[in-house]
Design goal:
alpha/beta; five-stranded parallel beta sheet; 5 helices; 5 strands; globular
């Protein structure tokens, strides 16, 4: 029996970036769903039960780091929330800690590198402590 494709929800207000990430992750065996707003993410997470939620932090109405806490309430226990932003690493790390995200990845990471980081993260057990120290997603 074939292993199910890892499911990824990518949330960003840039449609070109969403298209790029969807095409590249799909080529590496991911089932990718995209959403262009921080609003409604909790409902999508509840309905689609993704393995990963890659979420930008800069939205006009509701910041992505705030969405993590809200959406996590509706996510299966294994769902990994990853801040995915062009912000500098120090800011991303701080936001990840404050929001309870499982990690962070720079938007400069694309294609095979992004797929490799997600596959590697999928194999690692998720820490049970709510105040864990997130780190950049490593391969």
């Amino acid at each position: 029996m074939a292993e199910a494709k890892p499911r990824v929800l990518v949330v960003d207000d840039d449609p070109d970036l969403l298209d790029l990430v969807q095409r590249s992750l799909s080529a590496y065996g991911f089932d990718v769903q995209t959403h262009t707003s921080a609003l409604g993410v909790s409902n999508i997470v509840r309905a689609s039960e993704p393995d990963f939620v890659l979420i930008d932090v800069n939205f006009p109405a509701l910041k992505g780091d705030k969405v993590v806490g809200l959406a996590r309430q509706y996510a299966p226990p294994g769902t990994r929330f990853i801040l995915y932003s062009a912000s500098d690493e120090a800011k991303l790390r701080s936001l990840a800690i404050a929001s309870g995200a499982d990690g962070y990845i720079s938007k400069s990471v694309q294609g095979a590198d992004l797929a490799q980081k997600l596959h590697a993260m999928r194999l690692k057990p998720r820490p049970a402590l709510p105040n864990r120290d997130p780190s950049p997603v490593e391969s």
